[in-house]
Amino acid sequence: MYLKTRFHLITLLALFAISSYAQNTVPFDTTNWNVQGNFHQFTVYQGQQALTLEGAVAQLKGVEFQDGIVEWDMAFTPNRGFSGLRFRMIDEANSEEFYLRPHQSGNPDANQYCPVDNTLASWQLYHGEAYSAVINYPFHEWFHVKMVISGSRAEVYIKDMDKPLLHIPELKHTPTAGGLYLYAARTPVYFANFSYQAMDNNPPKLVNPAPEAALPDPATIKQWEVSQGFHESELDGITDLSDWNMDMSWQTLQTEVSGLGNIATVTPFQRETSNTVFVRYTIDATQKHTKALQFGFSDRARVFLNGQLMFSGNDGFRTRDYRYLGTIGYHDTVYLPLKKGKNELWIAVSENFGGWAIQGRWIDLEGITTQ
Q1: pLDDT recorded at residue 371
Q2: Is CATH 1.10.3210.10 what the domain over 21-198 is classified as, yes or no?
Q3: In the chain, which residues fall in CATH 2.60.120.560?
Q4: Residue 6: is its pLDDT beyond 50?
Q5: pTM for the complete prediction?
Q6: How far apart (Å, rounded) are the C-alpha atoms in residues 54 and 39?
Q7: Tell me: the pLDDT tens digits for 57-113?
Q8: Whole-angstrom Cα distance, residue 17 to residue 11?
Q9: d(CA 334, CA 310)
Q10: What kind of architecture, by CATH, is found in domain 223-370?
Q11: What is the CA radius of gyration of the chain?
Q12: Confidence class of residue 216 from pLDDT cuts 50, 70 and 90?
C-alpha cells in the first residue's frame, strides 16, 4: 500500500512539474490581448491567424513572466521600422526589450537588446556584439523568433532554431516577474503563433556559458553624484557656475564595469521640462597640474571645472553625418587644469532620445586621489 501510494505521489509530482512548464499558446484576440495605438487588426495573413500592428502595442493580459521561453512568428517589409518584445515589464516605463530592424538586414545592428528605464530605451548605450547580431531577414513571409530568458542572461533564435543568433550576457535589470508586450513602430508588422513557457522555479539552461566576471579599470570613474532634472535652456549663456542659482539635490549613480553610468536609472527624462542633469565628481590633486580625462556622453555635454566652462559637445543622433547613430564611447578628451587640493568636476548632460549617460576614465592616476 505504501509503495502504491508513493508511486502515485511521484507520478502526480511529475505531472505537476510538466504542467508547470507547459508551453502556453495564446490566440490573438481581445480576450487575451490589450491592444492600443495607431493601427491594429486581427486578420489572416498567408494562411495564419495574425495580429497586425503599426505604431501600436499588444500586452498579454494577466501574465507575470520572469524566466522561460517566449516564441512567435512575424512578417514584415524591408521598410524602416522597429518591432519586437518587451518582457519583465514592471510598468509602461521600465522593462527589458528586444527588437528587430528590418531596414538594417545584413548589418551588425539588424536587431537590438536594451533596457528601458523611466521610458528611455537605451540603444545608444548598449551596442555591439553583446546586444545585436548580423542576420539577413526574409521579407513578406513568416519567420520564427524564440527567446530563452534565464536569470541575468538570454539567448535569441531567429529563423534557425538549432543555434542561438545572439547571446545576451547581461540583462541590465534585476530579474523580476513582469508583463509581456509586442509592438511595432513606423511600419506594419504581422505577428502569429505566440506562445510562452514560464519557468521561474527552474530557469532554462542556455547554450552559451556565463561570461567570467570582468574587473573595472582602476582609472574608470565608478560613481557620480546626479542632480535633479532641469531644462537645458537654463544653461544658455552660462560659462561660470557662480552665475548658476538653482538649488540642487543629489543622488548617487554607480557605474557599470565599463564605466557607463545610465542616468535614466535614477532620473526620469522629460523632453520638454527635464532633459538635463548635472553629474559631479570630486578630484583631490596632490599638486597643481593638468590631467587628461577621456569621457563619453549621450547626447550633449558641458564640462565645468571649479565652476568654469571647459568643454561643450554634441554626440547626438546624426550630428556627425547621416549614418552616425550617437552611440556612446570614449570619443572625447578634456584636459583639466587642477589646483592643489579638492577640485569639483561638474558635467551637464542633456538628452534627446536613445540613452542618457556619462562615462569617464583618467589617462593616468598620478598625482590625484579620486572619490
Answers
A1: 62
A2: no
A3: 21-198
A4: no
A5: 0.90
A6: 5
A7: 999 999 999 999 999 999 999 999 999 999 999 999 999 999 999 999 999 999 999
A8: 10
A9: 8
A10: Sandwich (2.60)
A11: 24
A12: confident
Secondary structure, 3-state, the chain: CHHHHHHHHHHHHHHHHHHHCCCEEECCCCCCEEEEEEEEEEEEECCEEEEEEEEEEEEECCCCECCEEEEEEEEECCCCCEEEEEEEEEECCEEEEEEECHHHCCCCCCEEEEEEECCEECCCCCCCCCCCCCCCCCCCCCEEEEEEEECCEEEEEECCCCCCCEEECCCCCCCCCEEEEEEEECCCEEEEEEEEEECCCCCCCCCCCCCCCCCCCCCECCEEEEECCECHHHHCCCCEHHHCCCCCCEEEEECCCCCCEEHHHCCCCECCCECEEEEEEEEEECCCEEEEEEEEEECEEEEEECCEEEEEEECCCCCCCCCCCCCCCCCEEEEEEECCEEEEEEEEEECCCCCCEEEEEECCCCCEEEC
pLDDT tens for 298-322 read 999 999 999 999 999 999 999 988 8
The gap from C-alpha 141 to its chain's centroid, in whole angstroms, comes to: 29
Work out the percent of the chain whose per-residue pLDDT is above 70: 94
Read off the pLDDT of each residue in 5-29 and give the average, rounded to a whole number. 57
* Residue 330, C-alpha cell as written in the block: 570614449
| Percent share of the chain, pLDDT over 90 | 86
Distance CA 221, CA 260 (A): 9
Residue 261 CB-density burial (10 A; 0-12 exposed, 13-18 middle, 19+ buried): buried
Cell 495573413 identifies what position?
45
